[in-house]
Amino acid sequence: MRSWVLSVSAAVLLLASGCAGGSAEGEALLREHGLEGASAEEVVERLDRTHEDRAAGLAGSVTYDEVVLTDDGSEAVLPLPEDRFYLAVAPWTTTTHECFHHSLSGCQGELVGEEFDVRVTDDAGRVLLDRTLTSYENGFVGLWLPKDITGTLEITSDAGTATQQVSTSADDPTCLTTMRLA
């Protein structure tokens, strides 16, 4: 009984906070693309990993506090968790592109299917992430980090190492394409 009450409470909070823009149009867009009932984090991870959304005409952009999905004039806005920041990182060796808000359907990095050792340490020296990740079909690795921190991101692969200061505040990019491996 308690889990049912929690589920209903969570659903009410999502609707009240503007999930899917609170519109029938947004709900229909999510349903059409098989995203109905998915959390914002699940939507971001699903769309960032493949090119399926591109072929289906779905576009998505990640900002500090929401993911905005569009398709043929329809729009759905999903709030991101208050405490988590999505940073899409595309390490590169020869070619990159400029980016600020990560496009789940438009950004394409150079190194697809590559393994990277990824380490994020905050300014206090705490390790926030230390894992081996494989880049998606779009050449990016997706990192869920705490909001409003500053720290150091280090990425290492067979192609080399890149280190860069990162921040996760409202004024910071959700797309990082400046880490050249050398």
Summarize the topology.
Blueprint: H1 2-16, H2 24-32, H3 40-49, H4 52-56, E1 59-62, E2 66-71, E3 74-79, E4 84-89, E5 115-122, E6 127-134, E7 141-146, E8 150-157, E9 160-167, E10 175-176
Parallel strand pairs: 4-10
Antiparallel strand pairs: 1-2, 2-3, 4-7, 5-6, 5-8, 8-9
Signal peptide: 1-24
InterPro entries: CueP-like
Pfam families: CueP (PF21172)
In DSSP terms (H or I, runs of 4 or more residues), the helix count works out at 4
Radius of gyration of CA atoms, rounded to a whole number: 17 Å
- Total domain count: 2
The share of residues in extended strands comes to: 25-35%
Largest pleated sheet: 4 strands, antiparallel
Q: Remind me, CATH topology of the largest domain?
A: Immunoglobulin-like
What are the secondary-structure elements, in order, as H or E?
Answer: HHHHEEEEEEEEEE
Distance between the termini: 56 Å
Structural class: alpha+beta
What share of the residues lie within helices?
10-25%
Descriptive terms for the model:
182 residues; alpha+beta; Immunoglobulin-like; four-stranded antiparallel β-sheet; three-stranded antiparallel β-sheet; 4 helices; 21% helix; 34% strand; signal; CueP-like; CueP family metal-binding protein
